Amino acid sequence: MADLKERYGESDGTPIAAVEFDPPDGGFFVAYLDGEPLACAAWRSHQKSEDIGEVKRVFVAEKSRGLGLARQIMSAIEEDARAHGRQRLILETGIGQPEAIALYQALGYQRIPDFGHYRDESGVRSFGKDL
User: How many Å apart are CA 36 and CA 24, to the nearest integer?
Assistant: First the structure.
């Protein structure tokens, strides 16, 4: 994603296979307007956990930011993860995305110990929320 490359100097290097988002162990959502994709987000099981899901790939097209799409698509992620038995969602983002951090905090996510591919990076911020 070009946006991440602009903010961090590189694209997301997290190893992910598309099959990880297949139900019932995950889900991938896209918001469209007149057939044009404007936002997306996904969740997958965290380390094969039946209780915890991990939010991935939250993105809103630049021209569509500020319209509440991220909030709506996160709501869909939370509902779907809950419907598939997850009791908690976790995610990681970075200090280069202050608007993402503000969104997650506004949605009730709280800081947790860093985890995942970027856990040792100084700019990573990890969050979790009980569903």
Answer: 27
Q: Please state the pTM of the whole predicted model.
A: 0.86
Domain boundaries, the chain: 2-130
What is the pLDDT confidence band of residue 108, given thresholds at 50, 70 and 90? Answer: very high
Query: Who's near 34: CB < 8 A, 6+ residues apart?
Result: none
Return the CATH fold of 2-130: Aminopeptidase (3.40.630)
Both tokens assigned to 81:
């993860």
Segment 47-62 shows an average pLDDT of 92
- What average pLDDT does the structure give for the chain? 90
Average pLDDT over every residue of 118-131: 92
Please provide the DSSP assignment of 83-119 as one string: HTT--EEEEEEETT-HHHHHHHHHTT-EE----STTT
